[in-house]
Write a structure and sequence with these properties.
The chain is an alpha/beta fold. The protein has helices spanning 15-28, 51-62, 83-93, 106-109, 118-121, 138-146, 163-171, 182-191; strands at 3-8, 32-37, 68-70, 100-105, 125-130, 151-153. Strands 3-2-1-4-5-6 form a 6-stranded parallel β-sheet, with helices on both faces.
């Protein structure tokens, strides 16, 4: 199986996440995109009260494509969500053709060499990098390539949506219909999420 994973906090998952995953699915011939919400993201501040909600919203968003799957692999272990450990488990679980591919934005990829067991991780995955800024920092990417990170840039303009923007819209009482799927919007409203000013 040709497998690509999309790991993230997804707080909440939004339409740009889905468009990125759909682009990768169509242009790189993967059998599945597996969304993996981080249980305890080590690089981000997060509200633990939203942990289960984040997983449920990803499940709802993934219904938009039959080749999108959701894994709660990081929810089954009460530890920080280290990508390296998760990838090791995926290789044990699935019959993988080639390497697992990993969707990531430039903001996170620039810091990839600071991640837990990054030298081992780079031997296990190929990265598909989405540019979130106007211009990539060529020097940093050259440095990562020289360190043995295998990556390619996705030729897609990423829509200007972020989880921060979604949360801000909600706290300001603005409509988020353009930013998230109808099911995710309904879940947020039903559970009164992100209402804090």
């Amino acid at each position: 199986m040709k497998l690509c994973v999309f790991q993230g906090t997804f707080n909440p998952i939004h339409n740009a996440h889905l468009k990125m995953a759909d682009f990768v699915l169509k242009n790189y011939n993967f059998d599945k995109i597996i969304f993996i919400p981080a249980y305890k993201p080590p690089h981000k501040n997060y509200d633990f009260r939203l942990t289960q909600h984040r997983l449920e919203m990803v499940k709802l968003a993934a219904l938009s494509n039959p080749n999108f799957k959701v894994s709660d692999i990081e929810y089954r272990k009460d530890r920080n969500s280290y990508t390296y450990l998760t990838i090791l488990e995926l290789y044990k679980k699935y019959d993988i053709e080639g390497r697992i591919n990993f969707i990531i934005g430039t903001d996170a990829f620039k810091k990839i060499d600071t991640w837990y067991e990054s030298d081992k991780l780079k031997e296990l995955v190929d990265f598909i990098v989405f540019v979130r800024e106007n211009e990539p920092d060529d020097k940093k990417y050259e440095e990562l390539k020289s360190k043995g990170y295998n990556f390619q840039f996705a030729k897609m303009n990423v829509e200007d949506i972020s989880s921060t923007k979604v949360r801000k819209y909600i706290s300001e009482g603005k409509d988020i219909s353009r930013l998230v799927t109808e099911k995710v919007k309904g879940y947020i409203e039903k559970n009164g999420l992100y209402q804090d000013k």
